[in-house]
Amino acid sequence: MSMKRGSVPLRWIAVPVVGLMLFAACGESGVGQAPESAQGGGGESRICMMPKLVGIPYFNASQKGAEEAAEELGVDLTYDGPTEAKAALQVQMIEQFIQQGCQAITVAANDPNALAPAMKKAMDADIRTGAWDADVAPDAREVFVNQATFQAIGYALVDIMAEQTGGKGEFLVVTGSLTAPNQNAWLKEMKERMADKYPDMHVASLEPGEEDLQLGIDVTTDYLRANPDTAGVFGITSVALPGAAEAVEQLGLDGKVAVTGLSTPNDNKQYIDAGVIEKFVLWNPIDLGYLAVHVANAQIEGKMPESGTFEAGRLGKVKMLAPDEVLLGPPVIFTEQNINDYNF
Amino acid sequence: MPAGVRTLLLRPEAPALIFLVLLAIVLAFTAEGFLDPANLEDNIARVVVLGVIALGVNQVVLSGEIDISVGSMLGLCAFAVGAVGESQGGLILPLLAGIGTGVVAGSVNGALVTLGRIPSIIVTLGMLYALRGMILVITGGRWITNIPSDTRALGLQSVAGVSVPVIILVVLLVVVELISRNSTWGRNVFAVGGNRRAARFAGLSAGRTRFLAFVLVGVLTGIAAAIYVGRAGGVQTNAGQGLELQVVAAVVVGGTSISGGRGSSVAAITGAVLIGVILNGLVLLDVPAEWQSAMLGALILLAISTDALRRRLLREQPS
Amino acid sequence: MIIEEHRGEHPGVQDGAYPSASPAARDKSSSDTPGDPVIRVMGLTKRFGGVTAIDGVDFDLLPGEVHALVGENGAGKSTLMKIVHGLYAPDEGQLEVEGRQVTFVSSRDAEAAGVAMIPQELDLFPELSVAENLYVGRHRPRSWWGGLDWTAMRTEARRQFETLGIDIDVTLPARFLSTANRQIVLIARALMGDARAVIMDEPTSSLTEREVQRLFEVIKDLTERGVGVVYVSHRLDEVFTIADRISVLRDGLHIKTAPVSELDSEELVRLMVGRALSELFVRNPHQHGSIALELKGLSRSSEFTDIDLTIHRGEVVGLAGLIGAGRTELAQAVFGIRPVESGEIYIDGERVSFHSPQEAMNRGVVYVPEERQSQGLILPFPIYANITLSILQKIARAGFLNYDRERKTTDRFADALSIRGADVSEPISRLSGGNQQKAMIAKSLACEPSILLLDEPTRGVDVGAKSEIYRLIDQLGQDGKAILLISSELEEVLSMADRVVVMREGRITAEFDRDEATQERVMAAAAGVEEKAGAAEL
Amino acid sequence: MISAAVPRRLKLSRELVLLAILVALVIALSLMSPVFLTISNFLNTSRFFVEIGLVALGMTLIIITGGIDLSVGAGLGLVSVALGFTFKAGLPLPLALFLGVGVGLAGGYFNSLFITKLDLHPLVVTLGTLALYRGLALGLSRADAVSNFPGWFAYFGQFYLGAVPGQLIVFIVAVAIVWVLLARTRYGRYVYAIGNNEQAAHFSGVPVARVKTALYVGTGLLVALAAIIYTSRVSTARADSGTGLELDVISAVVLGGASIYGGSGTIAGTVLGVVIIATLRNGLTLAAVATTYQVLILGLLLIVAVFLNEFFRKTEE
């Protein structure tokens, strides 16, 4: 009897208590203050900047650079994106950026064409538009901040691999999802480089790691089991590279199977130290975020040059690849020597 | 039909096991390297995390409920393991941190279902979002890497040539199956899931029984998280994303009835291994990556259809 | 008064095949103070929402007596017993077990205090073995290493069924058991512990005569050991056979408790119903017309074999047999629910074969299932939506429903069948069992059928509603409908049917005209010479 | 608004709870962001919930019958790929659109085959077809994307009637049709009957298998419609379109008060559920609450709302 009566208040209590627990847990952590806007002095201009997704170190690093630039320039910065790398969610957020009254919107696109209509709408609303990290369709933005050309990255990857394998062999490429546009573009350049310069190198297989570390390890392991004569593995996302390196290390193939790719230094330090990875490629995402905000600000102020160079704060002069394309610079190649100089 | 065959077919995991054996035979002939001992072990090793969690979710499903929060729960537990491992090192403390986190999350699920009387699919759907949100908020998007090798012991080491994760899976299978068959709680799970009204009549506390099942999911997810961290060597904010559907697939493909009361731990593991073998076979057979998911789906449908076939054979009512 | 006649006629009673309760128990019950009652209930009240289910009820059970609890459906018998067994908490009043005041939180507390119960619902744990079903919720034997001792459980379970004189495979999952065997397992379960009192809620509703006799012998053993038995039943003949005292509940109130010797069945029915019942069964002469339904060699493996049967317009054919004889399966096969494997069905001379209930309904065949709650009604639906469910295609215009038209249709049938208790837009779950049963028949009549297959139409229905249903069946016969009346109550079949067909183990074993049919002959045909009991149905 | 299963009084109070939640949300959010409570924002937001909303209409009916369909997100991807890639291969776009609709219908029918013919649980079946449809989409597209649609195709997802987005009109029409179907026709009655007691419905002559088949096929049609609008809105056909849609849709439906055990639920509730989730997402973003928090809030809201719902249901009874 007592239990039956008791259960009603208990039920009442259960939900709020759980809610409080969850919130308390968040509060204690002391991380994550909600609004991600760095208040600048003037507060006149507002730049809205969107990564492909939030909650990963790469885009956290870009945010750091972006906030640095915003402070320098005295502009309002809103840096937010979806929690999953989905183009549809980005479309929705772009529309909301428009509602929020941003003067400039710059995005890292999960799909170049999917974002185009929303970006055009922003143009129609007289908002300066741009892309960074991953481009949208050229007619849907005014400028693209390119971290490194597809060609530069693709060639650098193949050249590094060729150094280690004597310019020949069969290779596995571990990508993100099979639909990821940047990865597909790099892959295309890689294949071109192999065809042109290293005719004995071939991409034997492409496996998706779906941006999941464990899956990346598993597909690499499976593949290397089935194809033990593989010369090397390319991991061409920031998750795929440590996954591929981990698999190679676990199989005890380090030294026999070369590993390289694109990733962030912090996540690969241990593999560089262990000698699984000799060199890998990336650009500096902090600088990229920093540059993107400078470009957006110049757009608002109407000071974008059409050619030559662009003056970007502490980065100095960066090159205009085209009237609507700014280049951050050549890719950074991380090795045992320089990896400790970076922290992202 | 001979009585022995009949008894065998009556086991809930029978269709999946038969399907698994047939598939293994086919792969043995068609896929080079399938029978390689290292590859066979790898088939199991890759589904250890899935299998350990499926053992827990299997009990929840047997009790007539469902838990689809395990993807996010694994992520959260993995962060607990990784963070403690990063700062303290060692194996025991991080493992306890993972299990503790799992127990808290599992208890919240259990309390909301039994005391809050909210359908479990909704509670755990809500928790799937809420726990993932917590990961993002707590970590602020930071990944954990450079986890010391002590902490990774459960994923990396091997004993007598068999990798530790596989040993853990087998041990947990035996333990959970023993609990399921030979403890009062284990039997009550079947009773509560099989017939809630009769269970109440028999004086069983359906609430307590189901609550403990949710807590068990937490415990096992905590252990699975330690294995995950050990194998992966790092934790990302999206760790475990989508795992919940795979776990449910493993449980039901193995032969545990989604409506509760019928099934076994062996069924859950059979389902998990079946998924592992399918994925492995597809890579070995050089099925292009973009067709692998379609093949997996088709094979899952084929596997569950064998259950319908078995019912036809035995003239059973659908469960 | 048929009930009384029936009692007098019953062969079992006359040759003493039914053991009557021990003389010692009778002495105790009639004498003044034989010791503390096992159970004593004082002023018990329980309300569900605004409805008072029982209101200040007193009740007691002495050691070694059989105390029958009777009353119409909804009188509060089950509620009272569920409180005594700890399933419900009372709102007011006291409960004492062996002189101590107790508060039960769950059934487990009641069982611990020595109060066991055989529930009315045949609920088992489908995937657990028979042996394990006996042990759910109880202390189970442990083996040396701390795990459950399965051998001990099976041995004990076998012993338990031996005392009941029933052969059953204790390792079989309960889902394979026949209805009768489920009932037996529940009885065995209740008798497992060291109970001081056993509550039996309609324990014989699925049992064969022989099993009922075995149960009565078990009850006798129990009372001789000083165990008190509360016997809840609709079957007044059983009550008079087995009980020492009878308590009557009506509308949640305690009406009377008296030794069985001070009551006769007419008086008992009057107490239960609150008025004298002039006549229970109604029979007017029927005009038989052409053959409406004819079955030729109908078979479906392991359910029924080679069934030949004809029903004329205006004829009521009674289908008798034990539970599990294949009668329900046969009716469902005719109705298109179970596929027929061989044989032919003719309606008005035309060969038909139905693959779904809709097809059968379109040809004027309706089936009124025996399981009212699980097969017959959509309980949360309003009354009108239940009654119109089968004829929506007729009353909807281009698929669109019209509330007024539905209501009118419903009112017509509800009035004709005097369905009482609630507005037609109330959920049908609020109706009493008898009124639900009438609503179910109303629903089938709305289809304007020419052939009705009625499966246990008075099961779990109180006396008043029974009488009305009999009147209705008679009226339908007069209107020229062909009716198949499946019933396990012999007097019902004998009184209502123009012709009685008996099935046993899936075959028709006898057919009697109205004037040839007697209880003995029908029973013999239904049970067969060598009756097999307790064999599990696989 | 006469619905068979739910007495009016009760239904009203459940939807009132949702309405109250929505109003509270709107007030709170408009305090947090000045642009939130504007007509242009509302109309704009509506474009993003139409796809979820359309599928949620079908899902509501399926959930009322006690079923579930986890394959809707994968189905959306498959339809998108089917129409995009047949167009790329040279099929005229109108024909490609019809083909897409056909694929949606076929996907629903395939689900229903397993559910009605083999008596398998919908959750199990659609878990399998989830992998199958997504896999087919990936395989058929070779993981590529198509985007060079002719200009007129944009109308499906980017058309405005005055200030009102075209798909909002499509959605309103669909809501009206499904609402009438569920509340006013015999098929709606059958849906509730099956959800409350499938066996009794079968015994009463309700064509259970046919109704179920129709629901899964109908949901397939809505998925196809959503896929066309989505593909047009983002002017890209990709295999990963609609990933995770199933969870959003189910969240909206159960938030709207449909019982996951079957037997109860309304279109009004589902529409409110869809709008609440969309409002919350939109408002929090406008108020510059980071998306990381939004995931957390959404999860808690779901639990709390359903708790309140169940609580009110029990109090009413």
List the helices and strands and how they pair.
The complex is a heterotetramer of chains A (344), B (319), C (538) and D (317).
Chain A: H1 2-29, E1 37-38, E2 46-50, H2 57-73, E3 76-79, H3 87-100, E4 104-107, H4 116-124, E5 128-132, E6 143-146, H5 150-165, E7 168-175, H6 181-197, E8 200-208, H7 213-226, E9 232-235, H8 240-250, E10 258-261, H9 265-274, E11 280-282, H10 285-301, E12 309-311, E13 317-322, E14 325-327, E15 332-334
Parallel strand pairs in A: 2-3, 2-4, 4-5, 5-6, 6-14, 7-8, 7-9, 9-10
Antiparallel strand pairs in A: 1-3, 11-15, 12-13, 13-14
Helix pairs in contact in A: 2-10, 3-4, 5-6, 7-8
Chain B: H1 3-10, H2 14-30, H3 37-45, H4 48-62, H5 70-88, H6 92-114, H7 120-139, H8 153-156, E1 158-159, E2 162-163, H9 164-182, H10 184-194, H11 196-201, H12 206-232, H13 243-254, H14 265-284, H15 289-314
Helix pairs in contact in B: 2-14, 4-9, 4-10, 4-12, 4-13, 4-14, 5-6, 5-7, 5-12, 6-7, 6-12, 9-10, 10-12, 13-14, 14-15
Chain C: H1 2-9, H2 11-14, H3 23-30, E1 39-48, E2 51-61, E3 66-70, H4 77-84, E4 92-97, E5 100-101, H5 107-112, E6 115-118, H6 130-135, H7 150-163, H8 179-192, E7 197-201, H9 209-224, E8 228-232, H10 236-242, E9 245-250, E10 253-259, H11 265-273, E11 291-300, E12 304-312, E13 316-320, H12 327-334, E14 342-347, E15 350-352, H13 357-362, E16 365-368, H14 372-376, H15 383-388, H16 392-395, H17 403-416, H18 433-445, E17 451-455, H19 463-478, E18 482-486, H20 490-496, E19 499-504, E20 507-513, H21 519-527
Parallel strand pairs in C: 3-8, 3-9, 6-7, 7-8, 13-18, 13-19, 16-17, 17-18
Antiparallel strand pairs in C: 1-2, 1-4, 4-5, 9-10, 11-12, 11-14, 14-15, 19-20
Describe the protein.
- The complex is a heterotetramer of chains A (344), B (319), C (538) and D (317).
- Chain A is an alpha/beta fold.
- Chain A has 2 domains: 3-146 and 284-329, Rossmann fold (3-Layer(aba) Sandwich), CATH 3.40.50; 150-282, 3-Layer(aba) Sandwich (Rossmann fold).
- Chain A has helices at residues 2-29, 57-73, 87-100, 116-124, 150-165, 181-197, 213-226, 240-250, 265-274, 285-301, and strands at 37-38, 46-50, 76-79, 104-107, 128-132, 143-146, 168-175, 200-208, 232-235, 258-261, 280-282, 309-311, 317-322, 325-327, 332-334.
- In chain A, β4 (104-107), α4 and β5 (128-132) form a beta-alpha-beta unit.
- The longest helix of chain A has 28 residues, at 2-29.
- Mean pLDDT of chain A is 83; it is low at 1-43.
- Chain B is mainly α and 319 residues long.
- Chain B has a single domain, classed as ABC transporter involved in vitamin B12 uptake, BtuC.
- Helices cover 74% and strands 1% of the residues of chain B.
- With 538 residues, chain C is α/β, with parallel strands linked by helices.
- Chain C contains 21 helices and 20 strands.
- Chain C starts with a helix and ends in an 11-residue tail after the last helix.
- The chains are: A alpha/beta (344), B mainly alpha (319), C alpha/beta (538), D mainly alpha (317).
- At the A-B interface, α1, α2, β8, α7 and α8 of A face α3, α6, α7, α12 and α14 of B.
